Amino acid sequence: MFRLVAIAVSLICALLFLLLLFLPATYVQNYGVPADNGAIFMVRRASPMFAGLALLLWLVRDAKRSPERNAICWMMIVVFAGIGVLSVFEYMASVADARILIAAFGEFGIAVLFGRILRVS
User: Fold this and answer.
1) Whether pLDDT at 121 is above 90
2) Quick count: other Cβ atoms within 10 Å of Cβ 58?
3) Which percentage of the chain shows pLDDT scores above 90?
4) CB 91 within 8 Å of CB 107
5) Chain centre distance of CA 4
6) I need a surface site. Which of 20, 47, 76, 82 has the fewest CB within 10 A?
7) Which of 30, 26, 47, 28 is nearest to 38 (CA)?
8) Band of the pLDDT at 120, cuts 50, 70, 90?
9) At what angle do helices 67-92 and 37-59 cross, to 10 degrees?
10) Do 101 and 87 form a contact (C-beta atoms < 8 A)?
11) pLDDT score at 104
């Protein structure tokens, strides 16, 4: 299960890296947030983090059960649950529109998948 999840999330992160780097205004506006210079600046600066996550998950996709693999799972849970919580918060604060909740669903889903990997390990 870890291999499949690591590959899938690696590809998602790689896609997000490209989207945030090359189309930051489109990404921001997709959630009903004005794509001003500050938003574009922050989104573009966040893009390398997704490249790093994509590379990390790709490189460890064949990792066997170990404390190191568990640490990676915990890291992914914190990252994606954290992004999910912030997505819901920004919706409740009327910063983003309801489309952000679709993203939150996916973010929480990724966190849950990595949590299931920990429970099986």
Assistant:
1) no
2) 15
3) 98
4) no
5) 16
6) 82
7) 28
8) confident
9) 160
10) yes
11) 98
Contact, 97 vs 32, CB < 8 A? yes
Give the helix ranges, DSSP H, for the chain: 2-22, 24-29, 37-59, 67-92, 99-120
Residue pLDDT, tens place only, 94-116: 999 999 999 999 999 999 999 99
Is the distance from CB of 13 to CB of 51 less than 8 angstroms? yes
Half-sphere exposure of 7 (CA within 13 A, CB side): 4
Nearest-angstrom CA–CA distance, 87 and 30: 13
**From CA 36, how far away is CA 64, in angstroms rounded?**
44
User: What tokens appear for 75 in the block?
Assistant: 């890291």
- Closest residue by Cα to residue 118 from 53, 74, 56, 63: 74
pTM, to two decimals: 0.93
Contact 71, 13 (CB under 8 A): no
